[in-house]
Design a protein that fits this description.
Blueprint: H1 9-12, E1 24-30, E2 33-39, E3 49-52, E4 55-58, E5 63-71, E6 76-80, E7 88-91, E8 94-96, E9 99-105, E10 113-119, E11 122-128, E12 135-138, E13 151-160, E14 167-168, E15 177-178, E16 184-185, E17 189-195, E18 204-210, E19 213-219, E20 225-228, E21 233-236, E22 241-250, E23 255-259, E24 269-271, E25 276-278, E26 281-287, E27 296-305, E28 308-317, E29 329-337, E30 357-362, H2 378-385
Length: about 375
């Protein structure tokens, strides 16, 4: 005989949809016989879901936490990550009613990454930082001393790692160093910077911050300049004379020296002023008479110290006059023996060995005072006197 089952009066009085429920079963006893009745879970019609949070951020070291699911009793839900995303683990992956989903994000050994997981039909964004194994290395920790006139220099940045965060250069703390805007990169590169001229008499330095490392910029003091005020040479008379030239030296600590040749043939010029000086000055010198028939010249070298500078001043001297005087002539009987005795074995008028005697004649001395004596051909002269 068929059995008719109807809703109870209480059920018939409810308003709205019947809440979703889990699967259920029960028994009936009819005429002493027991019947089991099973019913599937109700459809999820009318269910709504709330997931918190909907945005997860993890450091490179990883993260483990839970997501909270809020819904009506009996409302079923699932949790899943995209296919191929193995660095996120969810547990449990399904449930009913309000509950929690545990998640675990593995440590990251590479570039930054992100994905979206789905929990109870709600999208949850997951992002993770790049590996902490990224390193940044500067090619130097300090510049070489930069010239006081200024210039442009560079320093290299080497990045080791994958997907590393971009490095940057902080604005210089001084006005005399300039770094182009937007300097920096996520990979290895070079930082170029310019340095203004140093207007002071002291060296200076500052520190740049590059990829979070300190880099020192060094600059020398303002440079000095050296020049000769007039011509770089002079010509003096053969008889000997004096001369001078002016040195123009500007800038702090503008020291300079005069260097003379040391070979014996160059000792005919003499600097009579100081050989070392600082700032502008005058170099005074004299030259000996030129007793030769050839002109001669000599270079005086000025050495500036800051920066190293070499200037040359050339002294020229005219040739000496040629000696046109006639050769020496000994007068007849012009040799007078001054010895107190004459050996008996010698003829009259002989000169004793070791004795003093005088010679009388013409052209026996130098034609010009101070010049070398003439080379007298004594062998012929003596032969004529024998």
């Amino acid at each position: 005989m068929p059995v008719l089952l109807r809703r109870s009066a209480v059920e018939m009085g409810r308003r709205g949809p019947i809440p979703a429920a889990a699967a259920r079963s029960g028994t009936l006893t009819i005429a002493g016989a027991t019947f089991t009745i099973s019913q599937a879970a109700a459809a999820a019609s009318g269910c709504s879901y709330n997931v918190n949070p909907t945005n997860i951020h993890a450091t490179a070291a990883g993260l483990s936490n839970t997501l909270l699911v809020s819904t009506n009793s009996g409302c079923a839900w699932t949790a899943s990550a995209p296919s191929g995303v193995s660095w996120i683990t969810l547990n449990p992956v399904s449930g009913s009613g309000s509950g929690a989903v545990g998640y675990s994000i593995a440590a990251n050994t590479g570039a930054a990454r992100n994905t979206t997981i789905t929990v109870a039909g709600v999208a949850v964004t997951v992002s993770q930082d790049a590996s902490v194994s990224c390193t940044y290395t500067l090619s130097a920790t300090s510049s070489l001393p930069i010239s006081g006139v200024g210039g442009v220099e560079t320093v290299g940045v080497t990045v080791t790692g994958t997907g590393c965060p971009a490095w940057s250069v902080a604005a210089p703390p001084v006005s005399w160093v300039h770094v182009p805007a937007a300097s920096g990169s996520a990979s290895s590169g070079t930082v170029s910077y310019s340095v203004d001229s140093n207007p002071t008499s002291s060296s200076r330095s500052t520190t740049l911050t590059i990829a979070n490392y300190s880099y020192t910029v060094q600059q020398n003091a303002a440079p000095c300049t050296y020049a000769l005020a007039s011509s770089a040479s002079a010509t003096l008379a053969a008889a000997g004379a004096s001369g001078s030239f002016q040195v123009i030296a500007t800038g702090p600590a503008s020291t300079w020296t005069i260097t003379l040749p040391t070979d014996p043939g160059s000792q005919w010029i003499h600097v009579i002023s100081a050989l070392n000086a600082m700032g502008p000055g005058v170099v005074n010198y004299t030259v000996d008479p030129n007793n030769t028939t050839s002109p001669r010249s000599l270079a005086l070298t000025l050495n500036g110290k800051n920066p190293a500078t070499t200037l040359t001043y050339t002294v020229n001297q005219a040739a000496g006059a040629a000696n046109t005087a006639p050769g020496p002539i000994v007068n007849p009987n012009g040799i007078v023996n001054a010895a107190s005795f004459i050996s008996a074995s010698l003829p009259a008028g002989s000169i004793a060995q070791g004795s003093f005697f005088s010679i009388f004649g013409n052209g026996l001395g130098p034609a010009n005072p101070g010049s070398a004596p003439p080379a007298i051909r004594w062998a012929r002269t003596w032969a004529a006197l024998r």
